[in-house]
Amino acid sequence: MAGSAGTLWTEKLFKVLVIGDIGVGKSSIVLRYVNKRFDERYKASIGVDFALKSLEWDPQTVVRVQLWDIAGQERFKKMSRVYYRGAMGAIVVFDVTNSSTLEAAAEWKQDLDSKVSLDSGRPLPAVLLANKCDMTGRDRGLVSSLDRFCEDNNFMGWFETSAKDNININEAGAFLVKQMMLCDTSLSSEEYHRDRIKVSQASEESQSQSLCCWSPRF
Predict the structure, then answer these.
(1) Distance between CA atoms of 30 and 33, rounded to whole angstroms?
(2) Low-confidence residues in the chain, pLDDT < 70
């Protein structure tokens, strides 16, 4: 659509899946990202919930992110092919205080890759969130293994996050949107490989540090 000064605007709409086991904080992450708030009262998703985030990506581009928050119960995974259709990216969440949810995250990612891909046949851009990093029970050994885990499971990168304390939620969202924009504009493999992006990781004191994720392998 045209801007007030005759500038042409581009609108992008991306469907993003939010997946992971029950209780890892998917709905809280969506609530924090879209509505900038946190609710202590936990309510398990049933089926799929929807939310829309609008971003002014640059002066000429508006990005609308349609988030599909898919329930973590096993029975809903059986319907995942229907939910996944048309997706352009994914957020996979696990609870950093519960190692079994990381194993489940690998299963969700495998399920995702087996059922949906980009038009080019490449996997959807996906980011891994190690959620609940504000909690004292977080497993530092688990966190130290995430670079290798992401490489083995074809994630673009990972973040320690806290929906409660608003740690790295917007940063993770911006990272994923950038990956989807790169895919959408069909950048060459060489250009994509050169685009190394800093990923924020929470420190022991819940402050942000930067680490460089490996270059995407698309």
Answers:
(1) 5
(2) 1-7, 42-47, 72-79, 186-218
Q: Are 183 and 218 in contact (CB under 8 A)?
A: yes
Distance CA 130, CA 74 (A): 21
pLDDT, tens only, 163-173: 999 999 999 99
3-state helix, strand, coil in the chain (%, to 5): 30, 30, 40
Over residues 137-159, the pLDDT tens digits come to 777 788 899 999 999 999 999 99
SS (H, E, C) 25-49: CHHHHHHHHHHCCCCCCCCCCCCEE
Between CA 153 and CA 107 the distance in angstroms is 10
| Half-sphere exposure in the Cβ direction for 48 (13 Å, CA) | 19
Predicted TM-score (pTM) of this structure? 0.80
Instruction: Provide the β-strand partners of residue 17.
Output: 68, 90
For residues 123 and 117, the answer to whether their CB atoms sit within 8 Å is yes
Inter-residue contact 112 to 63 (CB < 8 Å): no
| Enclosing H/E stretch for 88 | none
Instruction: With both helix axes pointing from N to C terminus, report the angle between 26-35 and 169-184 in degrees, rounded to the nearest 10.
Output: 80
